[in-house]
Amino acid sequence: MSSMSGQLSQILLPFAPGCRAARFVRREKRFTAIAIDPATGEQLRAHTNNTGSMLGLLRAGAPALLSPAKNPDRALKWTLEALGLPNDLPNGAPNAAPDWVGVNTLTPNRLLAAAWRAGLLPEARAYARLTPEFKTGHSRLDARFDADVDADAAADLPPLYVECKNVTLVEDDQAQFPDAASERGRKHLDELIRLRGEGCRAALFFLVQRPDGHCFAPAEVVDPAYAEGLARALAAGVEAWVWRAAVAADGIRLAERLPLARPWATFAERA
Predict the structure, then answer these.
(1) What pLDDT is recorded for position 262?
(2) Strands (DSSP E) found in the chain
(3) pLDDT > 90 in the chain, percent
(4) Is pLDDT larger for residue 28 or for residue 88?
(5) Pairing with 199, which of 120, 171, 212, 237 sits 20 to 30 Å away (CA)?
(6) Does the structure show a pLDDT above 70 at 217?
């Protein structure tokens, strides 16, 4: 195993002790998921921060991975971390080792920072500082990277702004984003284009939290305006970093870089 592949096998985001494997029952309101412990029959109410549709994942009976809330006083004692793809055994019995899809939308931000600190993010390796939730003139982006002010090359290294996106949809072997129309996502594209025009680096970090899908494309059917905006962004020099995360019961690893599908790769090549 190469040094890099060995590094990629490490858990960057371990799940908290006390996680429970459950079965998804239903989504209740926008931020609540109902699950059941198959061993005890206990109903578990979990918070979900995923405001997308989670298209194809919210199946009654699907495996669900829940982590305990850090705040013991929180009304919802669990957080929905992942849902299982339909891979039951041939006899119809649930698979004890499902293919997990990470649905926690904070994971991309956390994994971006963890991968950078571990030296696993070549796109930002030259930078010395990361500031999360950076407010720009027109928006708030997930991260800004800056060079070491004392470094000789600092003057030649512009600030790098990054917006993170969680990818849980796969269609026709393509990982796609978004899974619901996203006005906020379109505004982020416009802001990244503006920053790129001012001489900054600007990038989108698309984290594919599922094992299938071998390239990335915007979900044109779901949000054609986002697809058009991404084409403009790529043509303007905004970078697209597409990485797969390996989600397991013990935590999340950075797995591999994925290519852009055509024609989106062509837009990036022309920039």
Answers:
(1) 86
(2) 13-14, 20-28, 32-36, 43-47, 63-68, 78-84, 100-102, 129-135, 140-146, 160-167, 169-171, 174-177, 201-208, 215-218, 239-248, 251-257
(3) 79
(4) 28
(5) 120
(6) yes
